[in-house]
Amino acid sequence: EQAARSQLPQLIGRSLTEPAHFLRALHQEFFTELTQRFIHELQRSCPHLQESELRLRLFLSVSTMLGSSIETVRLENMLGGKFASGKSDTLVTELTAFIVAGFEHP
Q1: Per residue in 21-37, pLDDT tens?
Q2: pTM exceeds 0.70 for this model
Q3: Are the CB atoms for 104 and 97 separated by under 8 Å?
């Protein structure tokens, strides 16, 4: 698990520099089915939202999670050094609350 965590920032960085056609093909091959599963479950949990809203909010959620994962240095600076990179449980708790609130709001 630790090895996967250390490779995540590299994978995210690479996804920002690869050509769009490569990323589109990668997403279609590996994430289309997973995305559809998430949308199905979100429709059950958030019947007040249209599918297009769920898809956008899922995209924003994933983007927020990825950004938070690679921006811990900036987070430490913004919090005046009161966040330790090793305290991922705090980050996960706050991030979860933030994302859940985004799906609850109409």
Answers
A1: 877 887 788 889 999 99
A2: yes
A3: no
Which tens digits make up the pLDDT trace of 47-65? 999 999 999 999 999 999 8
Residues 105, 98: Cα–Cα separation, whole Å: 11
> Which residues touch 61 (CB under 8 Å, ≥6 apart)?
99, 102, 103
Say how far apart CA 56 and CA 7 lie, in whole Å: 26
Residue with tokens 């690679």: 70
Distance, in Å, from the CA atom of 76 to the CA atom of 105, rounded to the nearest integer, reads 29
Q: Which residue has the tokens 């956008």?
A: 56
- Three-state DSSP class for residue 72: helix
